[in-house]
Input
Amino acid sequence: MPTAGLLLAGCAGPQSALDPGGDQAHALFSLFGLMLWVSGAIYAVVLAGLGWALWRAWRRRGTDARRDATLVGGVDARLDRTLPVVAGAIVLGLTVLITGSFFADRALFATRAAPALEVRVTGHQWWWRVQYRDRVSDGWIETANELHLPQGVTVRLVLNSADVIHSFWVPNVAGKLDMVPGRTNRLDVTARRPGWYRGQCAEFCGTQHAHMAFAVKVEPPAAFRAWLAAQAAPAAPAEGRGAAAFQATCAACHAIRGAGAAGRAGPDLTHVAARRTLAAGALTMTRGNLQGWIAQPKAIKPGTSMPAIPLTPADADAVATYLATLR
Ligand code: CUA
Output
């Protein structure tokens, strides 16, 4: 395995199925490793056979034997019979292993008690609504385009779509699962390694499918609870030009809890500046990018439902400044 480790070292990173940081991703990686070794062995045998045939032909060059298409008497006939059986057995074996692990996983899912932590993730063109159950109010704590997972804890993700088919995929943590309108899919994930990962929509869903990413933070349970408590808190009260302009032009689509904005069409912005990215991973979260996004959303993400807001430059500046305080 050290050789494979060396070969695959370049495939590690925040969005890689070859660098598992969770139980479900580990199971998939093991299957991948097995298939890689089996296929590699077959490839080596085929190349060795080819090399041997070429070497024989070269040695017999100029003789009549060179034109003899058969192998050593009788061997080819036996190979003709056994090779399909061997190939079929390998394919069947791998199929049983892979489908078996799939059904074992679903059986485990069906019998397991629902994990204490449930997170609703809803796909939109082209962003992610993320909601955590609030045990205190029995409501939901909402954020967008960022998923936090407590390390070592099994979390049940409840996946839906608001429009077309999307697919939820964080390759370092688990396999992908489609988000289908009118249907609820559930995925249990157990992240083990702390750090930032990248999730990506894995089903073509329109022009900005590629810009439908999200950031995933796996952190120790105490840090996770602190983050969730901060998300649950309403935004700090704000006055001034930025807050007023937001209320007048943006609040119809965006919510800021505590500030009277309750729009549901777009992402909840209560703690937007605390997020790592903006516009579903299209931009990093900076005050300048907030302002650029407000001014030219369709230039950054053609097709986005976010309209160019008719704000005066001074108002746009004030709104960006205001949003940048929402941590
Ligand atoms: Cu959503 Cu692709």
Residues 11-108 form one domain. The helical segments are 2-8, 23-59, 75-111, 221-232, 241-249, 287-295, 297-300, 313-324.
